[in-house]
Amino acid sequence: MRQIHSMRTILASLFLITTLCATTVFAQLDTGRITGTVFDPSGAIVPGATVTLTNTGTNAAQSMKSTSTGTYSFSGVRPGTYSLRAEAPGFQTFIADGLQIHVQQAFTEDVHLATGTISQQVTVTAATPLLQSESAAIGQTIDTQAVNDLPLQTRNWASLAQLSAGVTTAPVGQPSGDSGSSVSAFFSVNGVNLWQNDFRLNGINDNIEMYGGSSVNSNAAITPPPDAIQEFKLQTGDFNAEFGHSTGAVVNAAIKSGTNQLHGNVWEYLRNDAFNANPWFNNHNGTARPEYRQNLFGFTLGGPIIKDKTFFFGDYQGGRYVLPSPATSTVPTQSMINSGFTNLQDLITGNSGTATDALGRTFPHGTIFDPASTRQIPAGGVDPITGLSGAPGAYIRDPFYTGSLAGKTSFVGDTAQLNIIPSGRLDQNAVKLLGVYPAPTQPGLQNNFFWTPKKTISTNSYDIRIDQVFNEKNILFGVFDRSLNTQDVPSGLPGLAVAES
What we know:
Elements: E1 2-17, E2 32-39, E3 50-55, E4 61-65, E5 71-77, E6 80-87, E7 93-101, E8 106-108, E9 111-112, E10 121-125, E11 138-143, H1 144-149, E12 167-169, E13 187-189, E14 198-201, E15 204-205, E16 229-237, E17 250-255, E18 263-272, H2 280-284, E19 293-306, E20 310-324, E21 327-329, H3 334-338, H4 346-349, E22 354-356, E23 362-364, E24 375-376, E25 395-396, H5 428-434, E26 449-451, E27 454-471, E28 474-489
Parallel strand pairs: 2-8, 2-9, 7-10, 14-17
Antiparallel strand pairs: 1-28, 2-5, 3-4, 3-6, 6-7, 11-16, 12-13, 14-15, 16-17, 18-19, 19-20, 20-27, 21-26, 22-23, 24-25, 27-28
């Protein structure tokens, strides 16, 4: 039995400085950016306009003045829904609602002011841009609605990366698909090795830094439940300079943050052998349907600690799995066991063909030879034991045979007298060790034992996030993630006859 226990903790505390000029550039692994230009009705630029960006969930706002060229830019914007407000003397107030900012997105929203007073308002509803002109990165954003609405057999949101162009399941022989637990998020991007995908969680390295290493879910160390994911973006090419870890894709995920409204959910997903058919190999070997259990349960909860100022979000997910692990092995035959391992005639009946030694004697394949009888044929070419002639100096050895060897040139058909080992020639310690093997469940010499032991997996993971809005220029958030995975992997044989370490 092998115990596999893995743990990975990510602790990130980031200051987001939100008063930015148009020429400032910040690395924004898990954030977005919104830029634009302020125009008057004639199409001329409007410098000095006050532009305010407000998160509709938390009411956290940040403001700036449009530059001398009429431009504005907000960087380090957390994924979410925002409202943009622009004001300038002599113009009506401009409001754009429903701006969806995503991970690694550079969003452009130009402001077109109308002549009037500030007390008058022009409100527009933002539309999804057809082209992101601020970045050459290629990729696809999977938002929280898609993560929650699309069917996920194993509740591993990273498997949704396969919806993107250029993404395929892992090649044959690599981890892929549903193994009965929660493994399904292994994929290859643009033909690159699947271990060359770079996983980021809240902007922090989330990779298992060992080639070929994997958790229960994927080659990501921490995989929060889909209910905890705000969104993630899969970038497949032309990455920004802030990336450089891998040659495949960048999977960039962000955990939800709390808002002014209390929100959460509770779940349990069940799979059970009562709902399943018997596996094919069990039917083929006449074995009953094995025990099968999957229980995946958890909750999320987020909301305000101090309205408009401090917010929390947390989640927990536990998994308890009992999975069949069919195994086929080779064990001693029933005749070997019953005879105390002195009768090994099954080695002959289970084989075919013959072989000839230096004396011209013919033996069936599977014949066991007595090492104590090893000798050379004398210079005269006549063996004194059998009286047969052969090449002088050649080595020969006699079989374990209960009859006379004198003059015998063929042992084919004498199965009943071959392969009977005197008990005194056997090491009793070896006999005891051979006795721990189980009895065969199938006839034959090879692959004659089949059973379906249980493989158990226990997973526990949780994430805690705190957001603090100090003022419109300073926002702090911290995230703590932990994931524990324990597996009991059965051996190929029951009891003490362990076939693997």
